[in-house]
Design a protein that fits this description.
Mean pLDDT: 94
Oligomer: single chain
Shape: globular
Strand content: 5-15%
Number of helices: 13
Length: about 300
């Protein structure tokens, strides 16, 4: 078997970090009709585990891998809403949430389980990437385009949406910028409807992208919101209309707030943020699969626990 699982990064050649919330919701939608014989939903469990199996079998290179599961922490949404009140405000609070049950199952798998109060899973993914990438290859399994900004020579993004690794060409095609580090700046300026983040109304991307790319060339690739606004304060770009320029200057405070919650934040994580699961929970994991009648997945347990 080409892929082997190590329960700690120190014992592994590379790290696969999993966006648990993204995995859970995607699986729930993709397998929404699946249910147990007594009518309980099971597609979110089946899809989440089956997706991990597929990644381990088909998408990773040979070697020893540590799995790092990244969860939303307690009050994570409220913390971001304290800065940007509209953040995820349109999501139905009464809709069924598959993530708690998915999380309960995944916490039995050997590896690291990262959860920091007040932080969302994307911050946990940013933290593990920052922590491990100096010495190991890190793969982030996520459909969140915000996290494309974390790409580097040692950090790759495996997108379930694209069904492959994200490339620089994808960044150029989707955002029109030359450096992925500036994705948070783009999203702060143009908004993110999926998270109910409002950017500058009717701001044309062709007026802003050239300035971002110019600022990103030569010096540090990350163009912060502060640096972007400081550049505008010195001179209006020729390609930018006066109306757009005035809107950006007038909305400075809101743009800075947007940027602060979009930029991945790995500060404040410590030992209390990480739980280590060894190989002792195989029987519990199998029992959980049986509980949700995911019998076909039991044959894949050796992927996580070895022969």
């Amino acid at each position: 078997m080409p892929i082997k699982i190590a329960s700690k990064p120190a014992d592994a050649d590379a790290v696969l970090a999993i966006d648990v919330s993204n995995l859970g919701w995607r699986s729930a939608y993709a397998h929404e009709t699946l249910a147990t014989s007594d009518g309980r939903k099971s597609g979110h469990i089946f899809g989440s585990v089956r997706s991990l199996v597929s990644v381990l079998q088909n998408d990773l290179w040979e070697g020893k891998w540590c799995l790092a599961f990244c969860y939303d922490g307690l009050n994570a949404r409220a913390v971001r809403q304290s800065t940007v009140p509209s953040y995820k405000s349109k999501r139905d609070p009464n809709r069924w949430n598959p993530v708690p049950e998915v999380s309960e199952i995944l916490r039995l798998i050997p590896g690291l389980h990262i959860n920091q109060e007040g932080r969302e899973g994307d911050d946990s993914l940013a933290w593990i990437a920052q922590k491990c990438s100096p010495t190991k290859q890190v793969v982030l399994l996520t459909g969140d385009k915000d996290l494309w900004s974390l790409m580097s020579p040692n950090v790759k993004i495996l997108s379930p949406n694209l069904r492959r690794f994200v490339t620089q060409e994808d960044v150029v095609e989707h955002y029109g910028i030359s450096n992925c580090k500036n994705i948070p700046l783009c999203k702060a300026l143009f908004g993110d409807p999926s998270d109910d983040i409002k950017g500058i109304e009717r701001l044309q991307k062709k007026m802003v992208r050239p300035l971002i790319n110019t600022l990103s060339s030569g010096g540090a690739p990350l163009v912060s919101m502060g640096r972007f606004l400081a550049s505008l304060a010195m001179e209006k770009p020729a390609e930018m209309s006066l109306k757009a320029y005035d809107k950006i200057i007038a909305e400075r405070q809101r743009l800075e707030a947007n940027y602060s919650i979009i930029l991945p934040n790995f500060e404040g994580f410590g030992k209390e943020s990480v739980a280590h699961r060894d190989f002792s929970k195989r029987a519990d994991f199998e029992a959980a699969l049986r509980k949700y009648e995911c019998f076909s997945l039991i044959e894949f347990l050796p992927l996580f626990w070895g022969q």
